[in-house]
Amino acid sequence: MLGGRIVFSTLCVVLLASNAWAVSGYSQGFESDVSGFTAYQGITQVASGGGALHLNASSGDFYAEVQNKPDEYGYGCGMGGYSFYGGKDSVYSGPFHQSIDVYINTAWAPGYLGGTPAFWIDMAPYHADPNNYGAEQNFQVSVPGTGIVNISATGQSDQLATITESGWYTFDMVFRQGTNANELVETDLSVYDSAKSLLGTTTLQANSPGGPFLNSDLCGNGYVWLSVWQNGFAGDVIAIDNLVAGPVPEPATLSLLVLGGLAALRRRNK
C-alpha cells in the first residue's frame, strides 16, 4: 500500500509545484524574521548552530526557538504561541493543509506530570462561530524518558508514531469538506520525518468538544497552537520551523499528497 502511495506522491510533486500551491500557499521558514507567529513569552530567530539549542535548521539557514509561558494554559501547564498562517481564511476553496516542523529530542527528560503528554501541537481551520471548536485536533507529544518520544492524536490511545531518533519532524493536518453538508468534516493527521517519510497517519472526524463541525462549517485555514506545555519541560524552549499552509489537489484522502507542496515551498526557503 505504501509503495503505491509513494509512486502517486511523486506525481503530486509535479502537480503541486505547477498548481496554486506555490502562488496562494503560506510559508514562513524564519529566514528573514519571526513574523506570523505570536509568542506568549518569546520567540527568537536563530541561525543554524546558534541559540539555546544549537540546532541546524529544518531547511534554509534559520529556525525559531519558542519559549513556554508557565501556567498560561492552566496550573502546571503553559503555552508557547500560535500562528494563523498569514491570516484566517473565511472561504473554502477545496481541501487544504496546515503544517509545522518541530525538533524532537529523544533525550528529553519526562515532564513533571508523569504519564501525561509533555505538550500539544494543536490545529484548527477557520471557524466563523467562535464557539465551535469541533474541528480542532491535536498531536500529543509524550516523553516517557526511555529514549523515545510517542505521538498520539486527539482522543486516541494508540500511538500515531514512535520517534526513536532526534531530529526535525513535520506535523501536518489536511482538512476536507465532503459532499454532504450535514456530515462531519474529516481531518487527516500525519507525521513525517526529515526525509519526508510518512511515520503515521490517521483520520479523525470533527466532533471534538465544542462541535460538531459540519462540512457546511468548513472555510479555510485557521491556526496552529503550541499548548498544554508542561511547566519546565525541555527547559521551556522548543524549536520550530516551516509554518506551511495551502491547498492540496483532490483526492485529499492520501496524506502524502501534501509532500510535493512541502518540498516546493521549502525549496523557496533555501
Quick description:
This protein is mainly β. The protein has helices spanning 2-18, 21-24, 257-269, and strands spanning 26-28, 38-39, 42-47, 62-67, 69-74, 77-79, 81-83, 96-104, 119-124, 137-142, 149-153, 161-163, 167-176, 186-192, 198-205, 223-227, 229-230, 237-247. The strands form three sheets. Strands 1, 3, 4, 8, 13, 14, 15 and 18 form an eight-stranded antiparallel beta sheet that branches.
Query: What overall geometry do the principal axes of the alpha carbons give?
Result: globular
N-to-C SSE series? HHEEEEEEEEEEEEEEEEEEH
Pick out the low-confidence regions: 1-23, 252-270
Q: Average pLDDT, to the nearest integer? A: 86
Number of DSSP-assigned strands: 18
Characterize the largest beta sheet: strand count, sense, and whether it forms a barrel. 8 strands, antiparallel
User: Please, how many helices?
Assistant: 3
Taking all Cα atoms into account, the compactness measure Rg is 17 Å
Report, as a whole number of angstroms, the end-to-end distance.
Answer: 33 Å
Query: Roughly how much helix do the residues carry, as a percent range?
Result: 10-25%
The share of residues in extended strands comes to 35-45%
Oligomeric state of the chains in view: single chain
Please state the structural category.
Answer: mainly beta
What attributes does this structure have?
270 residues, mainly beta, eight-stranded antiparallel β-sheet, seven-stranded antiparallel β-sheet, 3 helices, 18 strands, 37% strand, globular, disordered C terminus
